[in-house]
Structure formats: structure tokens, C-alpha cells
Amino acid sequence: MDASTLDTRDIMLRTGVALVPAFAAATYWFGPGVLVNLAVTLGAGVALEAGWVWARFRTFDAVKDASTPVTCALIAIAVPPSLHPGILVFAAAMAVILAKQIYGGIGKNVFNPAMVGYAAALVAFPAHFADWDMLTGATALDALRFREGATVAEVWGQPAFGLVGAHGFEVVNAAALAGGLYLCAVRIANWRMPVAVLASLGACAALGYDNGSSASLGSPMFHWFSGGTMLAAFFIATDPVTSPSSVRAQWIFGIAIGALIYCIRSFGAYPDGIAFAVLLANLAAPALDKAMLRP
After folding, report:
1. pLDDT tens, residue by residue, 175-196
2. What are phi and psi of 289, to 5 degrees?
């Protein structure tokens, strides 16, 4: 299949299909609240975009590309299950209106809309995200970061940890990896950026890993299969609108995202740094393209 022969709607629909395994795994492990998130964000996102486009253009043509449902799906799977509906509507509004439509619609936005929505909700309502950790036990990323001198082996017995990564999240990441490989196989996702993200994150983790002492920051496998790593690598970093177009710039872009994820996870104020890593890389994407395309 040649993705260049597909229109935006077809690409988005196939991306939605590729997300199904991750949603199935997340729903199995974390409950039907994941689907509640999806329903609320989809309803809010589509309604907000339709209202905005109708108010400006008196037409609904701009909402037929199916990009907003994919954006809303990424928000829904990234936030805690059964997050307050008002926060979900807020996240959808930030993604669809602030990050997408104000810039002129699809193809003109600078920042990944889903990550804008997620980051805005996280910063505006941190207590609601912290409540998720309190209800389920600290996430593995939290537990490893704030373990008060315990070794990796000592902390690994906590319920937050699974076989190689975070409990539950490792299955979701494996499912997202399967969906992402499908997108690469049909050439909807550019394979270079996922490889660069995972290689960079893995290399940084390897440098900070010492077989499990109290100073160890987690193995490459742990970082690959915790948080939203595979979703970031295959579904977010590969957004063709907010990523570079030149090959060399794509490698640098992916490497930067992987390194930033690791640094924020290990030394920042948030347990997972995906949204902020992607947004910072989005900001640099035009400059990367300009530098790499210079004769």
C-alpha cells in the first residue's frame, strides 16, 4: 500500500484502526473508564470543531477529515480512566480549538493537538491526575523515581511493576507497538522517527542503568514498556504536520524526543515526560528542517 494515494480521511481511519489493540488492552487492564474517556472526548471534540467551523465558514467540510477523532482517542487513552468529564471537555477544547483550528485547521498547526490537550489538562488539574496514582498505587515511573534509596529489586515487588515494565502499561505498550508496526508496514507512519525515539530512550536508559542499585534510573526495557512510550513513538512523534520533512531532521527529531522523555522521567517534576518532550520537539521542527535542507 502506498500512503501517498490515500487522502487524509483514509489515513486517519487506518490510524484509528491501529489504535484498537491499545484501547482493548487498556480497557482490559484499567476498566471501562477508558471507553468513557473515549466517548466524552470524541463527543466534545467533534462538537467543538463542528461549531467552530460552522461559525467561521458555514460549512462542515473541514470536519470530514477524521483527524479530530484520532486526536481525541489519543487524549482518551493518555489520561486516567473515568477522568472528570469537565476536564476531558477542557482537554478536547485545548486540542481542537487552541492547537488546531486557531492555526487554520489540519496541516497548519505547529504543535501536536493531542499533546497540547493532555499537557493543558495535566498542568491545569494536577490533583485529578494524582488521584489516579493514589487509587491504583503509585505508577511504576513514580515508584522508581521516588524510592528513597531502595534498589530496583526491592522496589520491583510493588504492584505497580509487571514483568519488564509497568503493570498493565507493558501490555498496552505491546499492543500499541503492534498497531504502530502496522502503520509503518502500510507506510502511514514514517519508521525513522519511532526507531529514533526508541533508540534514543533506550540508549539514555542504558547509560543510567547499573544493574539495579539504589541510583539506577531504570533499564531500557522498563522505559520502553512503561507510560505511553509506544504511543508516543508510533502515533504521536510520527504526526506528519508537526514533525520535520527532511530525513536527517526526522532522525534528530526522534532522538530529541527520546532523550527528553528520559530526562523528564528521571529528573523532572512529572513521572512521564512524553507530552512536554513532543511539544518541545514540535517547536524545534521548522528550524531542524531549515538547517537540514540548507545547501
Report:
1. 999 999 999 999 999 999 999 9
2. -60, -45
For 270, the grid coordinates are 512529572
Question: Which three-class secondary structure state does DSSP give residue 12?
Answer: helix
Distances (CA, A) of 6 to 12, 66, 71, 72, 98: 10, 13, 19, 22, 27
Retrieve residue 182's grid coordinates. 502496522
Contacts of 90 (CB under 8 A, 6+ apart): 120, 121, 124, 125
**Which set of grid coordinates corresponds to residue 84?**
472528570
Q: Where are the domains of the chain?
A: 31-128, 135-292
Tell me the per-residue pLDDT of 52-79, one tens digit each, with 9 for 90 and over: 988 887 777 767 788 999 999 999 999 9
Residue 6 burial (10 A CB sphere; 0-12, 13-18, 19+): middle
DSSP letters along 267-282, please? HSSSS--HHHHHHHHH
How close are the terminal C-alpha atoms of the chain, in Å? 33
